[in-house]
Amino acid sequence: MLYRTAGQFKTSYAADHALFPVRQDAWLLGFILLVAYVLFPLTASEFTLNALLVPVLIYALAALGLNILTGYAGQLSLGTGAFMGVGAYACFKLMTIFPGMNIAVAIALSGFFSAAVGVAFGLPSLRIKGFYLAIATLAAQFFLVWLFEKWAWLYNYNSSGAIQVPNVSMFGLTVAGPGAAPVVKYYFVLLTVTLVTWFAINITRGRIGRTWKAVRDMDIAAELVGINPMKAKLSAFAVSSYIVGISGALFVFLWRGAAEPNLFDIPLSFRVLFIAIIGGLGSILGNYLGAILIVALPVIIGSLPAALGLPLQSATIEHLNVMIVGATIILFLIVEPHGLARFWAIIREKLIMWPFPH
Amino acid sequence: MEFLNSILIKPFADMVAAPDFLLQVLWEGLVAGVLYALIALGFVLIYKSSRIFNFAQGIMVVFAALTLVGLHERGVPALLAVPLTLLVMFLLALAIERVVLRPLVNQPDIILFMATIGITLFLVGLGEFIFGGENKVMITEQLGIPTGSFTFEPFGGFVSIEQKDLTAVIGSGLLVAALLVFLNKSKMGRAIRALGDDHQAALSVGISLSTIWVLVWFIAGVIALATGIVWGARAGVSFALEVIAYKALPVLMLGGLESVLGAIIGGLAIGILEKLFEIYWGQPLLGGNTETWFAFVFALIVLLFRPQGLFGEKIIERV
Amino acid sequence: MTRLLKTVLLATTVAAGLAAPAFAQDSVLLPNLSYRTGPFAVTGIPLMNGQADYMAMINERDGGANGVKLNYQECETGYNTEKGVECYEKTKAEGAIVTQPWSTGITLQVLPKSNVDKMPVLAPGYGFSAMQDGKVFQWAFNPPASYWDGASMILQNIAGGNLDSLKGKKIALLHLDHPYGKEPIPLLESYAAKYGFTLLPIPVGLKEMQNQSAQWLQIRREKPDFVVMWGWGAMNAGAVTEAVKTNYPMNQFVGIWWSGLDGDLKLVGEKGKGYRTLSWSMTNPDAPVMKDIKKLVVDTGKSQINKEAGEYDWVFYQRGVLISAFLAEAVKGAQANFKTKVVDKEQLRWGLENLKFDDAKIKELGLDGMIAPFSTNCANHTGHSGAWMLEWNGTKFVKASDLLQADRAAIDPLVAEKAKEYADANQPWPINEECKM
Questions:
Q1: Interface list for chain A against chain C, based on CB atoms closer than 8 Å
Q2: Residue A207 CA to chain centroid, in angstroms?
Q3: For labeling, which of A271, B138, C118, C239 is most exposed (least CB within 10 Å)?
Q4: What total of structural domains would you count in chain A?
Q5: Residue A241 lies in a domain
Q6: Interface contact flag, B253 A319, Cβ < 8 Å
């Protein structure tokens, strides 16, 4: 009924391969964009913007980057946090070396630094596979965080060893730093995320994306049919790290406002990995669903007891919170190992049939 | 020239100049290495028998140590607390097998890996919920572990060896020996190894997967308790202990994910090498704290030459 | 599955419906970004307990501050900066009139926002030392002493009052590799240049807190004359046990006030004898305030303290009490000045800026012997109470020095310099020009 496909005829291959073969998908997307671009900014409180919407978008972006590497190209990485850090520090250095630089340009450029570092640490993937590679990416994780700590040039020899985001204006509007309005930051992040997502959807559907998938499914077989695995793997590392780097720059500049090196330590990597896996590997939509679950769930659980009037200590709530998040992860893995994106796919299939199964 | 000198010559000159200090460094490295090897062993056993990369080994160490200390705090005598803790670890193994692993049989590796991270989070919350977050003192003396120290004076200097570290080294050695005997001689042990060699074949000769899984997770729990006692005796028991799990990962890379021997040798090698590197190269030249990454980078370099680790099974891929 | 989804949805709607904060007219919301979980919980728990118990006692005994209930609330951060920001936003939305960020990392994120949000930041004995400059950091307060005060007092004490005697000596700074641990370095470096001693910073990574054998091997090799420690959480216990193991003379080992947790020293007991820690607070279980807390909060079972461990007598617990006393006094001061009952953020800022803990006040509050007199003003947000040296006698900390005072001549120029640096890096940054002090 809602998703009735009857009457939507395809008359060419191009139409059949279109991004939205079912018209309702396009309407749904339009509706979501409307909510994100118009409804949320109008209605959301400052807390919702700062503690829910912006982080969800930034985490989803990071997970999208990781998903390209792990979900599309099959290379498990545990170093996402450090690559986000490379993006953040690169952006910080660009902004301090060229004070007049437009922040959008700086963020776009900072991605190239993390892409370069990503490719360097991706080189071992040509020889090392599976969990060995995963642990090898931890080398990047720990080495880079150590470097952020020790290389004083990165934080301009600041005595506390942390980086701070100054007020940054773009076209006369303060977009980053303490003086920026939450709505402005939200729009900036939303716009970036929309652009990158559009790019990611297209690249994963195209020729490069197909070579990634071939390498993921079996790299030797892919090589036999003429795909260059080195090119495929390294391009996946580059694109993935680029997106992750951008998300890192957004993470610090548009959300946190300050960062010390251990912010980019392994818990951040795991968090992003959770989002990618719970959302669904090899899916774009999944990253958003995963981010909503992983980022919003603790916030909601945290405010539940107070809302229900349960007299629980804040620390106790936090303990329960950690337990519930852990249990939820296990539960979702058991119920649907392919992630939330698959859930949506199943619901959509059902909706297409509903209410007349056959 | 000056630079090369500081990398290639000066560190060795320092070693020779203060041999007692070098001995102390080697000893500290060895003790750390024993602990890495123990944790890595827990990983290897589980990986061998079920292809699960068990990230929860680190938190199991904390959980076991906390249970032991927590029971003692609630008035259970130390020597009774140990078997009770083992019972708790057994129940934990049983629960993990029933609730988490059984429904996830045949899922891709990465899903199982994620599930163990889920277990980690759950245990962190549960542990803090039951025992609280404060630092606890390991009941070293109550367990009969000596706490004094020996001091030797070779080469006109001094080397001090803590008795509890010595106990740790000997105890771990015995534990590993017992484990090897168990794996090689007992029926159960052979079943574990059979599963590691070939799942299908092992199942077809009547080896019960779920029994073996409970068993390996329990053994991993025993190892975790041993690690927890040893490490807790050095620095107290708290959730900060969890991070030592990361130290076992490069050991696994170096030694190979399936090799018991690799875990032991890799652990000792990494313990000693990272300490030597930190003291003679890291601190004077790089600003210190290189122990966080040295082991990973070292293992990565070794892996470039042997992608399956030093003792791992050769990876054969077919199309 | 659908049932689960339904439950979650239902729960969320219920939460959203009830989340609107219940504003009672006669209370002020004083949240604390606490950390009772995670690797730093060790240090956090006794402090938070002290803070909570003082507020509970005031509410119980006096019915709050002039009849206004002090609504002390904890928001758990686990010392995690991400949770910290979330807690800050959450408590701000609920109408908090102050924020107590605790972690230096969270302080870093909150500090620039405090100007925009007009939110007072109370960071007693931590945060940036440069926060002393009240003209630049209008909304941030770190009474009664800053880390640079602490570093200066420690140096004076180990030099026996004569800094020139440090010439040619070697001092190791064993610190957490974190903004907090790096705080004293600029001051110590300037001292080292001036008085001719060698400063050897030895960082301890967050992952090495419990395994400092490499750091202590370095100490053994370098043989510093003194080891000064800037440690937090699990790092303190690790350092003290390693020091015992290395046979480092305990009387040459000194910690800042966050490295003096009784529980950490209990790990080594007798062997830790001679270890000293600087402290701006003193324990005095016989002070009237402590007796009231014991009677009204601890004995009635409303406190979370660990009685078996003797937490009531710990330095950190009683320091937590003092921290809440600063805040409660600021509320009362603001009430008196603005002749109102329920104070708002700007009024509380005035209160924190005009704290006056003189001898009479300390006596009146019943904090006898627990703290040295200090007062804040618009130019000086620290107050500089000075501090004492405490020494571990094998079972507890005892006073081991007279009241020490920091070397203002060395610190104040550095404060001015760093405060200006901060303001310049964060343009446009408002400076309080009205303050003529």
A1: 45-47, 50-51, 146, 149, 159-162, 164-167, 177-179, 255-258, 260, 262-263, 265, 299-300, 302-304, 306-309, 313-315, 317-319, 322, 335
A2: 22
A3: C118
A4: 1
A5: yes
A6: no
| Inside any domain, residue A13 | no
Taken in order of first residue, the domains within chain C and their CATH numbers are 26-146+285-385+413-425 (3.40.50.2300), 148-282+390-410 (3.40.50.2300)
Q: Tokens 């601190």 — which residue?
A: B283
The mean predicted confidence, pLDDT, of chain C is: 84
User: Could you tell me if residue A164 is inside a domain?
Assistant: yes
CA dihedral B259, B43, B221, A78 (to 10 degrees): 180
Cα separation, C141 vs C381, whole angstroms: 5
Which residue from B minimizes the CA distance to C209?
B240
The single-letter DSSP state of residue B315 is P
* CA dihedral angle for residue B163, residue B166, residue B172, residue B173, rounded to 10 degrees: -140
- CATH code of A28's domain: 1.10.3470
Biggest CA–CA distance in chain C, Å, is 75
Chain C residues inside the 8 Å CB shell of A162: 105, 108, 179
Please write the tens of the pLDDT for every residue from C381-411.
Answer: 888 888 899 998 888 888 888 888 888 888 8
Asked if C114 and C133 touch (Cβ cutoff 8 Å), the reply is no
Indicate the SS3 state at residue C98: coil
pLDDT tens digits for chain C (437 residues)? 344 444 444 444 444 444 444 444 588 899 999 888 777 888 888 899 999 999 999 998 888 888 888 889 888 888 888 888 888 888 888 888 999 988 878 888 888 888 888 899 999 888 888 888 888 888 999 888 889 999 999 998 888 878 888 888 899 999 988 888 888 998 999 999 988 899 999 988 887 787 788 888 889 888 899 999 998 877 888 888 888 888 888 888 999 998 888 888 887 778 888 899 999 988 888 888 888 888 888 888 888 888 777 888 888 899 999 999 999 999 999 998 998 888 888 899 999 888 888 888 888 888 888 888 888 888 888 888 888 999 988 888 888 888 888 888 888 888 888 888 888 877 778 888 777 77
The verdict on a CB contact (< 8 Å) between B307 and A127 is yes
Residue A3 lies in a domain: no
Whole-number Å distance between alpha carbons of C149 and C130: 11
| Contact criterion met (CB < 8 Å) for A262 and C206 | yes
Q: What is the rounded CA–CA span in Å between residue B206 and residue B196?
A: 15
Three-class SS of residue A262?
A: helix
Decide: B223 and B217 in contact? Cβ < 8 Å.
no
Strands (DSSP E) contained in chain A are: 163-164, 168-170, 173-176, 258-259
Is the N-terminal amide bond of B103 cis, ω within 30° of 0? no
Residue numbers of the domain that contains A309: 21-353
Q: How far apart are CA C338 and CA C269, in angstroms?
A: 51
Cα-based angle A273, A276, A280 (whole degrees, multiple of 5): 140
CA A28 to centroid of chain Cα atoms: 21
Residues in chain B: 319
Residue of A nearest to C179 (CA): A160
ipTM of the predicted structure? 0.86
- For residue B311, what are its two tokens? 């003792």
CA separation, residue A335 to residues A281, B51, C56, C57, C375 (Å) = 15, 21, 46, 50, 61
**Interchain contact B115–A (C-beta under 8 A):** yes
DSSP letter assigned to residue C278: E
**Are the beta carbons of B235 and C39 separated by less than 8 Å?**
no
Touching partners of B (3+ C-beta pairs < 8 Å): A, C
**How many angstroms separate the CA atoms of A206 and B240, rounded?**
46
Interface check B241 vs C, CB under 8 A: yes
Calculate how close chain A gets to B193, using CA atoms only, in Å.
21
